Amino acid sequence: MNTQNHPLRRSESKFLLGPLSRFKELAFTFRVQRSFIKAFRKMHFMGPCVTVFGSARFQPDNPYYIQAEQVGAALAGLGFTVMTGGGPGIMEAANKGAFETGGYSVGCNIILPFEQKPNPYLHKWIDIPYFFVRKFLLMKYSYAFVVMPGGIGTLDELFEALTLIQTKMIQDFPVVIFGSEYHSELCNHIKLMAANESIGFEDMKLLFVTDSIEEMQEHIKTHAIKKFNLTRKPQRPKWWFGEQKVQGIFKSVSP
Predict the structure, then answer these.
(1) Are 91 and 63 in contact, with CB atoms under 8 Å apart?
(2) In whole angstroms, what separates CA 61 from the centre of its chain?
(3) Which member of 33, 45, 98, 248 has the greatest number of CB atoms within 10 A?
(4) What is the CATH number of the domain that holds 75?
(5) Does the residue 23 lie in any domain?
(6) In angstroms, rounded to a whole number, what is the distance separating the alpha carbons of residues 153 and 172?
(7) 63-77 and 213-220 are packed helices; what angle lies between their axes, rounded to 10 degrees?
């Protein structure tokens, strides 16, 4: 599919150019609403999740890809659904780690003219034409966020999560930055912001930087599972909504 000429992609690009006619802007809001409702229906029984962010460009022989597989497997071992942006690279690796160890793996796939198509390690995914809808969904269902090596999009997702936590729009879910060497300059810049009082020193506590799978697991156990008393229980779908039960994922999330 030529996603560059996808009608929804064209409508988003046109919407960002500036004011349109009132009718066109109203029609755009209806398309966005439909995208939200479709996503809510499909993702309703997926949680609790942990979202893994990272670059789409790393190949399977890259050390960061291999680490992301281990991260996905470890999160699945804790009982979480592993959620990613659904594409290749780090996203594929985290989904693969969960998928191949018997966990549950889902993706919020963005429609792009390059790089992005659903990876083969997803039990369920949804194709989303709007970045802001996708970012909302990646935050909505998760009780922790793991940031692997990535590029501009990964940093955007990291700071989106931190902003929502800092402003109390969502609860103080754990944010794990995985890969201390790769992220060293980023962490130094965050320290610089604190030193110059553009953020508070308390905000530094929102981040946990590690290179250890075991430390990541313990941090998420303490600051997500125990803190929010997470237990995954079977939910009963409403047949009159056309909902179907998701099989095989209703395990207890316990320390």
Answers:
(1) no
(2) 23
(3) 98
(4) 3.40.50.450
(5) no
(6) 22
(7) 40
